[in-house]
Input
Amino acid sequence: MSLLVVGTMAFDAIETPFGKSDKIVGGAATYIAWSASNFVTQINQVAVVGEDFPATELSALAARGVRNEGVQIKKGEKSFFWSGKYHMDMNTRDTLDTQLNVLADFDPIIPESYQDTEFLMLGNLTPAVQMQVIKRLKNRPKLIVMDTMNFWMEIALDDLKKVLKEVDVLMVNDSEARQLTNEYSLVKAAKKIMGEMGPKYLVIKKGEHGALLFHEDSVFFAPALPLEDVFDPTGAGDTFAGGFIGHLAATKDISFENMKRGIIYGSALASFCVEKFGAERLREITKDDIENRVQEFVSLVQFDIELVD
Amino acid sequence: MSLLVVGTMAFDAIETPFGKSDKIVGGAATYIAWSASNFVTQINQVAVVGEDFPATELSALAARGVRNEGVQIKKGEKSFFWSGKYHMDMNTRDTLDTQLNVLADFDPIIPESYQDTEFLMLGNLTPAVQMQVIKRLKNRPKLIVMDTMNFWMEIALDDLKKVLKEVDVLMVNDSEARQLTNEYSLVKAAKKIMGEMGPKYLVIKKGEHGALLFHEDSVFFAPALPLEDVFDPTGAGDTFAGGFIGHLAATKDISFENMKRGIIYGSALASFCVEKFGAERLREITKDDIENRVQEFVSLVQFDIELVD
Output
């Protein structure tokens, strides 16, 4: 069940209609690791941080089975920093500040002990770095899942398209799927991505409106849990990705049926993530909490219609 | 299984990114009747039209069991007319023209033969007219379902609140639920509507993002079917309502479990409606088409997770 996760480990400062955080630990790979560690006992983490990154965070993750041999700590440098403000709908946000810092020349190192990886999760990151990770693995993993964002479509589309050719599952949100394909219909966008761009599976994240999983002519939909309050959506997409790949890696089953379960686990984890600032809630939840939340998803969509043949 | 439907029967002229219709037959009660007639053999229709309304439409509906004794035809007057243009997202639209015509002083007549009605569907209409219909029924129906819209919240909120006190199920879209309650969270909006305003059930329609059914502490979610093309969303909400109440009236079962099925049938019918201009597609579909579409909904959300106790 070896799982390699690559992505940012960083600082965020977040404003929402409900409050404002200090500079807190964030980053795609951080959320993915917290989330996936509910399913697998070992995660091989690849990232780069500055000297300012708290050792307590790395040791807290290590206690959850997240190995940090591949996490480079750059002396005298600062970690990536992002600051943003969410609008009332919690689906749109303004970036207030971005400081690349150590991310500017991230050269991902894959320790020898990571080489047996079966599952690779490429968190949102410069496409060229995602590609380097793939190339530096001696054997192709059984499943490569990739997250990306509109920003890379605007400034590094060619690199992005090259990585797409190498991955099995692409994970984007609805507006990114539209931007990547110039198709407004998500069904048409999915056909174009799976037919022409590389990935054989596509996950489209729609935030509070749930998520879609496409493969060949099949489509699966999982709602987001209707929540009384969404406190902070930062990291929800990464947490979703962590639950998805974590479940797949734990079960070693990459069938469409099992990916559906991965989507449900991902959605359940994401529904916890948004309840508090940053990854705070993810540090608290237990296996029981997760199972109870999954049961809520079952109740939410379960219906019983007797169809006449 | 007596079902009374009240609402507009009218003309629409529609522009979408994909085309432009002539002046075609529309109106909430028209869509509801076409949709519900797939489930029940008799519908008691209450509406008002002008001399310009095509007799062929009334006879086509009559052939489907839609009685028009309660449809007033105003000599020398014109039917209600609406014209609108949809944006690319198909969820937002601009009204280009509204001509009230016969609707300006609609005094709904309930024929004696309609008095035994068990199910009442109040299509979107002036709240005062909806109230008159309720008052003119000698016995309260077993279930009253009401649709409304933001327009009435702006110009007739007091009247609307009075009708709300009389109904069992309110059907609105997400922005209307927010507007009615001043709550952004749909879960909080639902609690307020069911706790303070009258309805014990709430259906929130989210267009391409599906629909939610709330009752006490239970919530059910049905997705919209991901479609390659949404050609014209006009009437989709009314068609959804018609499928919902049609299924309930046909089964005479107003349990939460059966309402879930109603939501699925409503969603299935709505997914046909948007495939062509106006109610055109609704005239073509067969019982088999509907069952096949419902099967697609089953596949779309079905997953199998074994939970540990």
Chain A has a mean pLDDT of 95. Chain A touches chain B at residues 88-89, 184-188, 206, 209-210, 212, 218-223, 226-230, 257, 260-261, 263-264, 291, 294-295, 298-301, 303-305, 307-308 (CB under 8 Å). The first helix of chain A runs from residue 28 to 36. The CA atoms of residues 48 and 72 of chain A lie 5 Å apart.
